[in-house]
Design goal:
The chain is of the alpha/beta class. Strands 1, 2, 3, 4, 5, 6, 7, 8, 9, 10, 11, 12, 13 and 14 form a 14-stranded mixed β-sheet that branches.
Length: 340
């Protein structure tokens, strides 16, 4: 029996673990992480399916398109399934607006999402967005606070086990496991170690505004966006590269709300019900590859899958499918006598 450790319980770790289970049903798989559920960066994500190539640097566009398509097929099927409420997926219409016409056109998803089209000048005037150009389409929103617990339940139901502890170095797992899936996100800085990893700080505001039914995403240095979830609307945001500060900043929150009210005046006066600060684990390019380590006279096979940055939810299913195939290839190389 092949023994596999998946390090990390964010969205990438959970999707990777579940997909490895599907391809290697006889393997003994354990998720090991120091943080789960609401303690992870993934839990605070807006989950809007709107992939952006310029945030996935160093990866061929065709490769990104493959991940994008695989993720869309899975998320949209969940959004239209009887499990939609449980998994936290919904189909939501909305708008992308900007003064840059190239921002409202996106070949990564124009042919994938539902009903994509450019807004006319007359429509932009009637909608009163303070921008020149816009597009409208229906996409999927993933609520990670629902989807991540769902994935963990599925993993456990299929025989997977979970350990809540810190792993300081991949090599320390060599005595117990044949293979490791490294989905540690920003933790890869020390785990691998990988100096190419860097944080992109984000701060969000959660408001109670049930009358907001559509998403809106606006182009700017710190993009302003509105993403409706079940019990609140996520209003963002910031994108601060290299900033490790996890403390909530009231001034930043006020700046977000000032920008947001200029774009959607109807949110003015909405009750603030929460806030979130997180560090998007970023790498150019994200790391998705196999590595063979030699530890204490034995081979430890490692599949790396981390560094997704702001595209974590959107790309996670697609990259996890590829990571699972890599794990399957590795498993085929392990002779029965070498398995722990």
């Amino acid at each position: 029996m092949v023994r596999i450790a998946v390090i990390g319980a964010g969205i990438v770790g959970l999707t990777t673990a579940v997909n490895i289970q599907k391809l290697l049903p006889s393997a003994q798989i354990t998720i090991i992480a120091e943080k789960f559920d609401n303690e992870t960066t993934s839990s605070g994500a807006g989950g809007l399916y709107r992939p952006t190539a310029h945030l996935v640097k160093g990866v061929p566009v065709d490769t990104i398109k493959g991940w994008v398509k695989d993720s869309w097929e899975h998320y949209s099927s969940l959004a239209m399934s009887p499990q939609a409420h449980e998994t936290g997926h919904s189909l939501v219409p909305g708008y992308v607006v900007s003064d840059d016409i190239s921002f409202v056109q996106n070949p990564l998803y124009e042919d994938i999402v539902f009903n994509f089209r450019r807004l006319t000048n007359e429509e932009m005037k009637r909608l009163k967005f303070p921008f020149k150009y816009g597009s409208t389409f229906t996409t999927v929103i993933t609520q990670p606070k629902k989807f991540m617990p769902y994935l963990l339940r599925q993993f456990r139901a299929n025989g997977g086990s979970v350990e809540c502890r810190r792993v300081n170095n991949i090599e320390e797992l060599a005595d117990k496991y044949d293979m490791v899936a490294n989905c540690t996100g920003l933790g890869a800085q020390q785990m691998t170690p990988d100096p190419s990893m860097y944080p992109v700080r984000g701060q969000l505001v959660l408001i109670k505004a049930p009358w907001i039914k559509q998403f809106v995403y606006c182009d700017s240095a710190n993009p302003t966006y509105f993403i409706p979830h079940d019990n609140h609307v996520i209003v963002g945001g910031t994108r601060e590269q290299g900033d490790y500060n996890l403390n909530f900043c009231p001034k930043v929150q006020q700046n977000i709300l000032t920008r947001a009210e200029r774009i959607l005046p109807q949110i003015k006066g909405a009750e603030i019900v929460g806030n979130w600060v997180g560090l998007r684990p970023s790498r150019d390019p994200l790391r998705l590859e196999k590595e063979l380590l030699h530890v204490k006279g034995k081979k430890l096979r490692v599949v790396h899958n981390y560094g997704h940055g702001a595209n974590g939810i959107t790309l996670s299913w697609g990259t996890s499918l590829q990571a699972a195939k890599m794990a399957q290839e590795f498993a085929a190389e392990i002779p029965p006598s070498a398995k722990l």
